[in-house]
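Sequence and fold:
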Amino acid sequence: MNEYELALEIEGPAAMWTRPDTGSTPVSYPVPTASAVKGIFDTVLRRPHIYIKPLRVEICKPLRYERYVTNYGGPLRSQGQIKGNNNYQLSATILVDVCYRIYGEIKMKKMSTRGSIITNGQFNEAGLDAERICGRMIAKKWLRPVGKTKYRPNGDLENYKQEIQAEYGKDFQKIWSVLKNPIGRTLLRYRRGQNWLPCFKKMFDERLKLGQTFYTPCLGWKEFAPTYVGPFRGETKRETSVDDIVIPSFLCSMWDNRKLQPSYVQNWQIVKGVMSYRHQIPTEDELYAE
């Protein structure tokens, strides 16, 4: 386990890690998806500038599938069922009597600094009347002053490019060259310039030990609440008999740059009760990690 690795154990009577390719009679994956693992960690502790990267999962009980039927009353019913206030029976194949040990690594997001400053000197060097140009741009709300001779763009200047070209005509190329080459360009930095990983790990471990969560974690579907969520228990052991299982198509992520864009990995393998979220086949270090 590396310095900023998190781990917890979760157990419950039922779980449903839905395979999207199984349609209206869903079947569960044998292990939680990466997004489900993130969700479980987030119930204990979450911060906007920190996220958990799933590493691996250990299966601690034999896999057992059973048929599960529930009355569905959601928006995916037909119009006739909704008007008549009628439900329909949803049949699924779920896992029962499950226990997992899940591992994740703490990662920090980087935030942008306040850069991109444009100065009078840059316009003067280009042979332009800086006060006239900048005064007009401030009136048009393309720039805003941050001092007597310094300015920052109001948003992305690409949005104003045509208006600036129409305003300044033959001087446009010189002006645009200055605008697109500000001093103090935006840089990425850690929040308040500090490494928050040790603090986050300490708080996470304390909350996990005390059983504190923001909301009740679940084993896939919300109705499948766990009976235990916490640090590793001494009596729990990895189920090595769950071996040589190949998942033909495993859901990797539902989103790409905030757009709904499901992505999958193929032929992902479970070996001796371990599945890695980083490698198709668990490495020796992952199989025998303490």
About this structure: The first helix runs from residue 34 to 44. Residues 52 and 108 are 9 Å apart (CA to CA).
